[in-house]
Amino acid sequence: RHPTSREKEKPVAEITVDTKKKLVLVSGRAHPALADQVASEMGIELTGSDLRTFANGEIYARYDTSIRGADVFVLQSHTAPINEWVMETLIMIDALKRASAKRITVVAPFYPYARQDKKGRGREPISARLMADLFAAAGADRIMSVDLHAAQIQGFFDGPVDHLFAMPVLLEHFRAKLDPSTLTVVSPDMGRVRVADIWSQKLGAPLAIIHKRRDPKVHNQVSVHEIVGEVSGRVCLLVDDMIDTGRTIVKAAEALKANGAIGVVVAATHAVFSDPACEILQSDVIDSVVVTDTLPIPEEKRFPTLEILPIAPLLARAIREVFDDGSVTSMFDGAA
Question: pLDDT for 26-60, tens place per residue?
Fold first, then answer.
């Protein structure tokens, strides 16, 4: 039937929809100091959460406030015990998904299992791919990480991956500390040549490469073979993505000193520092070790020649760019 004139005049209730975006930053328990620094850099408060480990080892997560419709960034540094923190990250993501978060970004400054990015021998896993699958299955829409061990890891996740680089943070430090006229940038192995080459261009210093060989059946053991490039009478800057036990770096430093280097400075993004790294890195062949705080470095793992640079400003800016639909690439000026 046709509506009467009285029905036509009946007012319609208006519904107002709040379309303002909401940024939420939550943190796991692996590196709370970094999360506090990132929140401070962004001028926001960390969203409170109840994270617990029960007596049998199971992990529980619940958020203190509503997450519905929010753009959530889950910050977790995957340090030891790495499997516990990976599981906590997955449970936090699942809780966010079930709390109706609009978008979930995993901010993993140190990507877990990144070194297992391919099969070196038969019947081996590709665990870096498994991590990406687990994040996706839990409900992650996006991943953000710093200095992935291999760039191909970006392709393991079926969604956006923001690959950040600590190079600008480290470069600023070394430009003020080292003289480029006596400096040589050194790649500790063939896999880091591309990154070391960018370093050499940015610092205006020549490049050298160390050829090494690993025994695939013996982990954390390496033998140095030869050095390509001029290192005699020069200060050598060894650049790598991570330091685990430190044996590779010390072997490289010994080779450089044996070939006439007058100084060796080590630069790395991720300070894994598995035992006995702290003792090994205090070797006489290494003058200083410079790292960022993507991973927590407790007091007992610090030593006089160690310098720690803050990564929080880089993470804060990247999170803000993603939230504002800006450009993360522009942060690095095409450096990598």
Answer: 999 999 999 999 999 999 999 999 999 999 999 99
The helix (run of H) or strand (run of E) holding residue 253 is helix 247-258
Buried b (16+ CB within 10 A) or exposed e, 193-211: eebbebbbebbebebbbbe
Cis ω on the peptide bond leading into residue 125 (within 30° of 0)? no
**Active-site pick, 212, 251, 257, 301:** 212
* CA distance linking residue 110 with residue 166, whole number of Å: 12
Max Cα distance, the chain (Å)? 99
Nearest to 292 by CA among 161, 171, 133: 171
pLDDT for 163-209, tens place per residue?
A: 999 999 999 999 999 999 999 999 998 888 999 999 999 999 999 99
Q: Which residues pair with 143 in a beta bridge?
A: 106, 161
Q: Is the pLDDT of residue 300 over 90?
A: yes
pTM of structure: 0.90
Calpha distance 329→336 (Å, rounded): 9
Q: Quote the crossing angle between the two packed helices 167-177 and 312-323, to the nearest 10°.
A: 140
From the CA atom positions of the chain, what is the Rg in Å?
24
Instruction: Return the pLDDT at 163.
Output: 97
Res. 335: pLDDT tops 60: no
* Rounded distance between C-alpha atoms, residue 25 and residue 39, angstroms: 7
E runs forming strands in 66-148: 71-75, 103-108, 142-146
In this predicted structure, the answer to whether residue 334 has a pLDDT above a threshold of 90 is no
Residue 81, both tokens: 């015990």
Does residue 212 carry a catalytic annotation?
Answer: yes
Q: Which of 126, 121, 118 is CA-nearest to residue 217?
A: 121
